C-alpha cells in the first residue's frame, strides 16, 4: 500500500514538475526563497500591535489611512505564539525528515534522472516539507487572530503557492508538501488553543 502511494506521488511530481515556463521559474524561485518574504513577516508582526483601516469620505472616495493601537498584552501574547509556532513547525518538521529518511526528487533513484531541479540540489531529506509546515502554521495562526476574510484569502493563497513552488523547483514531492501543510495546521491549532487559554486566564486576572 505504501509503495503504491509513493509511486503515485512520484507520478504526480513528474507531471507537475514538467509543467514549466522560464517566466515561472523566476516567480517560483522567489516564492521558495525565505529572506524575500521578510517584509511580509515584519508587517504581520507590526499588525499585532496596530490596526489599519481606510477612511472613506462622503463621496465614497479614499480619504486617509487610520491607525489604531491594539491591546498591547494581546499583541505580545500573539507575538510569542507566532515565534513559538514557527520554532515548533521548523524544528519538528526537520525531526520528521530524519526519522523518515525520504530522499528528495533530485536524489531519489526513481526520479533523479527526470526531476527538473532549479534550486540548489544539496543533499537532504524530503518528508515533510519544512516550507509547507512553516507557512501553513503561520497562515492558520494569524488568520485566526486577524479574522479578516481578505487576509485569510491572501495568506492561504500565498501559503499554497509556496507549497506548489517546492514541487515546481524540484525540491519536494507533492506528498511532502501536503503532509507538511497538515502538520503545520495541527501545530497552529494547538497554538490557537493555548492562546485562547492564556487570554481567558489574562482576562480573569483583570477582574
Describe the 3D structure.
The chain has 207 residues and is mainly α. The protein has a single domain (2-206), classed as Up-down Bundle (Vanadium-containing Chloroperoxidase, domain 1). 66% of the residues lie in helices and 7% in strands. The chain has a two-stranded antiparallel ribbon. Helix 4 runs antiparallel to helix 5 and helix 5 (130-146) packs parallel to helix 7 (174-206). The longest helix is centred in the last third of the chain and has 33 residues, at 174-206.
Note poorly predicted spans: none
CATH architecture: Up-down Bundle
Tell me roughly what share of residues is in helical segments: 55-70%
According to CATH, what is the class? Answer: Mainly Alpha
Biggest β-sheet: strands ordered side by side in the sheet = 1-2
Q: Determine the number of helices (DSSP H or I, runs of at least 4 residues).
A: 7
Q: N-to-C SSE series?
A: HHHEEHHHH
Overall 3D form: globular
Main sheet overview = 2 strands, antiparallel
Amino acid at each position: 500500500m505504501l509503495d503504491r502511494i509513493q509511486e503515485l506521488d512520484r507520478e504526480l511530481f513528474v507531471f507537475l514538475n514538467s509543467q514549466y515556463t522560464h517566466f515561472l521559474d523566476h516567480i517560483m524561485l522567489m516564492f521558495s526563497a525565505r529572506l524575500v518574504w521578510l517584509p511580509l513577516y515584519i508587517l504581520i508582526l507590526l499588525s499585532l500591535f496596530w490596526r489599519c483601516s481606510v477612511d472613506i469620505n462622503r463621496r465614497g472616495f479614499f480619504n486617509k489611512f487610520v491607525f489604531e493601537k491594539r491591546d498591547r498584552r494581546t499583541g505580545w501574547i500573539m507575538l510569542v505564539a507566532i515565534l513559538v509556532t514557527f520554532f515548533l513547525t521548523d524544528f519538528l518538521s526537520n525531526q520528521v525528515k530524519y526519522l523518515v529518511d525520504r530522499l528528495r526528487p533530485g536524489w531519489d533513484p526513481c526520479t533523479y534522472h527526470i526531476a527538473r531541479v532549479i534550486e540548489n540540489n544539496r543533499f537532504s531529506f524530503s518528508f515533510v516539507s519544512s516550507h509547507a509546515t512553516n507557512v501553513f502554521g503561520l497562515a492558520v495562526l494569524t488568520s485566526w487572530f486577524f479574522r479578516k476574510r481578505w487576509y485569510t484569502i491572501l495568506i492561504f493563497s500565498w501559503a499554497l503557492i509556496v507549497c506548489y513552488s517546492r514541487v515546481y523547483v524540484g525540491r519536494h514531492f507533492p506528498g511532502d508538501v501536503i503532509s507538511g501543510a497538515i502538520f503545520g495546521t495541527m501545530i497552529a491549532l494547538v497554538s490557537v488553543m493555548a492562546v485562547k487559554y492564556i487570554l481567558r486566564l489574562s482576562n480573569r486576572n483583570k477582574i
